[in-house]
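Narrative of activities, Objective 1.

The group set out to show that a structural description can be obtained from nothing but a protein's sequence at a throughput compatible with the screening campaign. Below is one input-output pair from the validation batch, recorded exactly as produced.
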Amino acid sequence: MHFCRETQRFKQLYLLKRTLNDHIRYLSETSRSPRTTVNFSNGRNLTLTTGQFARLADGCAVGTLGDTSVMVTVVSKTKPSPSNFLPLVVDYRQKSAAAGRIPTNFFRRELGPSEREILTSRLIDRSLRPLFDEHYYYDTQVVCNMLAVDGINNPDVISINTASAALALSDIPWMGPIGAVRVGMVDEEVVINPTRKELNDSKLNLIISATKKNLVVMLEGNADGILLQDLQKSIKIGTKETQQIITQIENLQKEFGKPKRSIQAAPTLSEEITEALRSLSSMRVSQILQNYSLDKIERDVALGEVRTNVLEKIRHSFPDADSNLVGEGYNKIVKQTFRELIFEKDIRCDGRHLDELRSISCQVDLYKPLHGSAVFTRGQTQVLCTVTLDSHESAMRLDPLSVVTSGVKEKNFFLHYEFPPFATKETGRIGPIGRREMGHGALAEKGLFPTIPSDFPFTIRLTSEVLESNGSSSMASVCGGSLALMDAGVPINSPAAGVAIGLVTKYNGEQIDDYRILTDLLGIEDYMGDMDFKIAGNNKGITALQADIKISGLPLKIVMEALQKASDAKKKILQIMQKCIDKPRLDKKENMPVVEKFEVEAHKRPKLLGVGGTNLKKLFAETGVQVSQLEDTMFQMFAPNQNAMDEAKEIIQKLLTTERVPDLEFGGIYKATIVEVRDIGVMVTLYAGMPPALLHNSQLDTRKVGHPSALGLEVGQELQVKYFGRDPVSGLMRLSRKVLTAAKM
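Output recorded for this entry:
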């Protein structure tokens, strides 16, 4: 027994010691909590945490700003894909549950990605992609899940920073981290990460992604004609704010990050094959690129012929060489030759100087049935833009979650961009638009939206179809769209134009030794260059911008210089456009829609509407005119043209006009005719053409009446009633038979 008690005491002491050790270890771990907080200059804090969720992923982080939280996971395969590019996929998904909502579709669950989700995914992708090694060919997926949305802080910038943290903490080779902020300007003051309410009062909505040493990786935003110097100031301040995000992510990475995995060295060509490729192609490629008489198709055909010839000779001389590597080696020589010629001669492959625009031509009012139309041609890029005006009933209504995050319930101006395959002399699928088309259309829409008056009485749909493409079709859509809007008579405050700025650098992997900025970018310059910077604006200032940067960061000096060159080019383009049409059309076209407001007295509304709105439905079917109720007695008519409006007015006039209404005296006794018997009473008329009025059961007799048939009342029967005027709210007649029967008694 004594031995058993000693054994039991020993077990208790052992368990107590183990519990104390576990507690000490827990305190130690919590004191090193895997989290960091970024304190912005305006007092708002961004918190990044890791180690709690999705621990099987290569990297996971949760970002929180206010009460908005986003979880980002990253996973990359361990074996390279056969492609020769980075197969990076970014999926940003809005979750209704995060906002305390239930999806409104039939299945009550999240379905395919919305336009806002796709645009945000592209935004995150452009921020992350430049910092991957050019030979990293491993399938990589970044998934952004909204955990909570407070309707105050937008989750898109939080997602960029959280994705940066997740990649930095993972074992995936990546040259980050990056930091991202949203920059607004309220009352001429720069605001970092403005709330949704502040953003409504801001004339700037700009997202900046940057890496260390104030190197800009991505820019995207829209503005209400912000001045160039104000935009440059905002970019400098925003870039500076990103540096503390980068510092905090680096601290988190040092303490809790995984060691970066080693990747397989990319196969390379032997020096002998590389030299053979160079000797066979370099001179011929250089001659083609210096033949300034060639257009896009002719240049591509010439380069294709050289490629076929060179690869065939290499195949005969080196039969064991990998054909894919040989093809990639040829592409590198073409790219290197293309870039070197720009540095040597300051002349581009189409013969233009670095700051020179392509030839521009414009035309408006193309087809009579269209409300507004224009074709804008810049070099071998051509877009056809059409404007359709419709009623406010045609406004685009956003899904509930996009309303929560953006604060926009509906859009009465939207631009649809189409890029058919024939625009680049190709065959392919024509159908629902892809992510690229959606992104280009959204950018062009941002560039034109500030020019649209807020009180315009129509919904505007602007379509832009690319007929030819050799670079910068989205900015051509801004130019053509502005012309089409003026042709439609939309009173825009100022025409807008857009231009793309390119960049070719001598980049050694760490810094830029030399560079050339290219104005009005060609397609081949976009493909072989280091930047595609699209800027749209009007005479007042900048309205939209988007920078797609292909190297791991640009110094602010180059960004500012590119903005200045874009501003100069924009002014030249606007001058050319004004020669075609310099202001919105004042004389209306015959087929232009019209809108009129009219008032209907309360007691006449049933005549206008009809039973269940049948009169208005019939009016729309016969004339195409839509009638909508604005207030109790105020209505608005939308007609596709003036003739339809005149016809609808006649119909409405007949509906509202009746025979002369006799003056009824308050307290007067009149003969009423029963026209309908209902459960609650009888419908009667006092004179011909009068809308039936209800004589309620409670006013039929001094006795309680459950149904008019109890009194033997039938349709067509006449009886006397007393008139007590109209109800001040509903406008309906107040009649009584009971007071007359009571008087007889």
